[in-house]
Amino acid sequence: MKEKINVPEYAGKIIEALPKGILLNSKHTKFNSMVIGWGGLGTVWGKPAFTVYVREHRYTKAQLDATGEFTVSIPMEGVIPSIVKICGWQSGYDIDKEPAAHLTLEAPEVIHVPGIKEYPLTLECKVLYSQKQDLEKIPEDIRAKMYPQDVDVTYCMANRDAHTAYIGEIVAAYIIR
Question: Based on CB atoms within 10 Å of each CB, which residue in 44, 73, 125, 142 is the most buried?
Fold first, then answer.
């Protein structure tokens, strides 16, 4: 069962959970979920929106580019370490995260990407706009910390490549019960 929600009423919960790790879900060739700690909740072009940032070489990026859809799953009671371990440290290129992290998928209402019962606050989003970051326009102190160039890009947690920002219109919002 899904309980529809008014997103602004849950904004504080969403913003509080984000830096601790929430899940960005995508589905093209297979379902994939990754932990994110950056994002933005707001209004863009008069539409409720959630913005996510995905590095250039991530499995999720190809999925988002192919489908233009994603869900965001937010825990109601705190992060689940076993899910973070798989979805935050493993690549969708290498494993199928749904069985590996013991995720229970919940059918979506509007788009084609499911939510996750274990992280029940769910935002279904359709991409309105995407753009790759220009690293030269990021302040030097942030660029040095977040995009060090001395890391091998083939390392699974490599962080020297830029992100693409995806602004997603929130087309459905609910709590999976």
Answer: 125
pLDDT of residue 158 exceeding 60: no
Q: Could you read off the pLDDT of 18-58 as tens digits, one per residue? A: 999 999 999 998 999 999 999 999 999 999 999 999 988 88
Residue whose pair of structure tokens reads 């233009």 in the numeric block: 68
Sign of CA dihedral 12, 16, 18, 21: negative
**Contact yes or no for 61/26 (Cβ under 8 A):** no
Can you read off the two tokens belonging to residue 114? 């499911």
How confident is the model over 68-77, as pLDDT tens digits?
Answer: 999 999 999 9
- From the CA atom positions of the chain, what is the Rg in Å? 16
